[in-house]
Amino acid sequence: MSLAPRAVLVHRRTEYEELIGRHGTHGQAAFFLSSRGRSLDEVVDRHHRTRQALREVEAVVPLTWRSSRVERADLDRFLFAPEDVVVVVGQDGLVANTAKYLSGQPVIGIDTDPGRNPGVLVRHRSADTAALLRAATAGGRTDDLTMVEAVADDTQRLLALNEVYLGPPGHQTARYRLGADGDTGPGEAQASSGVLVGTGTGATGWLRSLWLERGSALPLPAPCDRRLLWFVREAWPSPATGTTRVSGILEDRQGLRLTVESDRIVVFGDGMEADALQLTWGQSVRLGIAETSLRLLA
């Protein structure tokens, strides 16, 4: 007998909750902000809107379904199941934070603060949740958003919806060799502040800023395009390091290979630095298009 669907509600601590966690009480948080010419009222209003949206979403989960809540900080310890319908309640970035832990489950993005969030990934309102849950289990239309994958030579694997960053854990210089996956040569020796490999979804964020800074002629991909762009950040020319491979396109079945030549390089996706791969001297990692896509309800 098949299991009933499970609605998994993904959320994060609000700014108000973070302030209370830091300052202890509402009064202390209000004093801290007022002493800097800021008011706590706006933060409290956003907190109430977010909590109200969560209540509204939870209230319309069908009685025959199971349900669960998971906070962003616990995503790396939460076990998603194939029958899950994932409801992300919050900002666009929270959808990206969640995507790396999924394997084809349908995702519904609920915008808790319309007008403040761009709404690229959180496309719906809490009042639409009941209809969206029905659509998710009835084969409703989804956009399959391309993801990027990093696979290390020790089988560590990382997925990201926007971008994967490879670089030094601090402000030092990363040293490595960079080349196309499958090349027989060792690749170009480089020294830089890191490498960024991004998707069409990421083309509205960090990837776009690099693309604009370079004045790049490479066409930015759309979210569903099976194409990635990559850039080397601040490559340093020297007698031992080159700068001839600093940007490019990756299509299906193409990959970029980086081999570490420094003490430590971290690899993380979508800003989740706390959940990073750790690579050391001599290790290599392949970057390319992931087989898994994010199934986001349109």
From TrEMBL:
Tree of life domain: Bacteria
Designated name of the protein: Inorganic polyphosphate kinase
Lineage: Bacteria, Bacillati, Actinomycetota, Actinomycetes, Kitasatosporales
